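Pilot study result, target chain (67 residues):
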Amino acid sequence: MKYQIDKEDLKKINKWKKEQELKDKSNFVSGERWSYIFTPGSLGNMIGVRDNILNEEKDFTNYDYWA
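Predicted structure:
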């Protein structure tokens, strides 16, 4: 199954990632810092991003699309 992130949501994700990197500048070699979590639902897909260094996760689901 293919999941897509629209441009506006991607901007929000990248902003959050930059904020996370300011908290801890550690970085894994090949990008393992970030996990993207896609959960299909009957009304739409949920999108989450996890910072594996700080063990923090944020929901970026755009519930406005679920109308």
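One observation from the pilot: Helices lie at 7-23. A full batch analysis is planned for the follow-on phase.
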